[in-house]
Amino acid sequence: MRPVVQLRSSAGLYGADRMVLALDSHLPDAGQSSVLACIDNHHIGHSPLHDEARRRRQNSVLLPNKGRLDAGTIAALRALLRSTKAACVHAHDPKSVVYAWLATRGLDCDCVATTHGWIETSAPLRLYNRIERALLKRYDAVVAVAQPLVDYLVAAGVGRDRIHPIANGIEMIEPASQQERMLARRHFHCEPEDTVFAAIGRLAPEKNLSLLLHAIARVGNDAPIRLLIAGDGPEFGALALQVEALGLRSRVTMLGNLDDCAPVYAAMDVLALPSLSEGMPLVVLEAMSAGKPILATAVGDVPALLAHAPCSRLLTSDEAAWADAMRASIGTRSDDARARSYAGKFHSAQAMAMRYADLYRTLRGEDHVARAA
Length: 373
Fold this sequence. Notes:
This protein has 15 helices and 13 strands. With 373 residues, it is α/β, with parallel strands linked by helices. It folds into two domains: 4-169 and 348-365, Rossmann fold (3-Layer(aba) Sandwich); 178-346, Rossmann fold (3-Layer(aba) Sandwich). Helix 8 (209-219) packs across helix 13 (319-328) and helix 11 crosses helix 14 (337-346).
């Protein structure tokens, strides 16, 4: 069997990275061999994704990269594709889309890309996204993880027959026992009477966590509310300063990057996701699998997911609305069994891997029009 090479360039272990790890791990169970190729991050001197894959004993290869468009990265990826006789290279971010396309010229190797949504908060990001969308028109298959992305891809010129909606999948998180909950809350210095909210993910402008901090400040100091913020990113410093400026040091704990967020899910009562932009966020699926209620803005596929989570609530990007919702959530200790059941049935890593394996097999069985160089 010819393997599939999963290609990813990343700066941490965020939602898309965890999705790639889960996909690579479960594809063999779906009858498809897989190799993970991580593009080295020259800014931080290593690849957190590669490090985590090696820790999990997954087959991961680190591709050298010196920044910008590195011919050495193209050569290393091309050599990997040839040595493994890969049937397909599967790119998971704009940078990988470029390298996958260049490395496969002249090879009998399909190109697949998964789009997790586009962030356009800076001029460089807008340029990268424009280049990616131009190349996606030439890819054999493009996977959209959320329904709104399908229309976006069509508008960008990607043929509808090449677009395949495949929902994200997760490693399920079992609801914590009472003892696990107590120990996790003690670890994070939460009081027994606290209602613990948590925000998990890359700390970037589109996550809109500043709104969450202002909402907590509106609730008032007498409310038994705690917020755990797990993650790192470009907004870490600004958010830390905002915590101080709003006088929230005793109520907000910034945990930084965590290798394992299971203790956070055990400690929390409610997940908070005030994002301005999302595709299908893994944190929502993980919270659903753990039976946790969710407060979230209506972006991406979040409304479709929360339709199966009756203990959760959609909000607008309004500080007062968030403050009211957080105040109303005080004392929440819900276990949303319906949400847990839905996440397990439709969004497990195993179900996702089966869908991708079917896609790879479909591509290998079809006659393809030669791709333009």
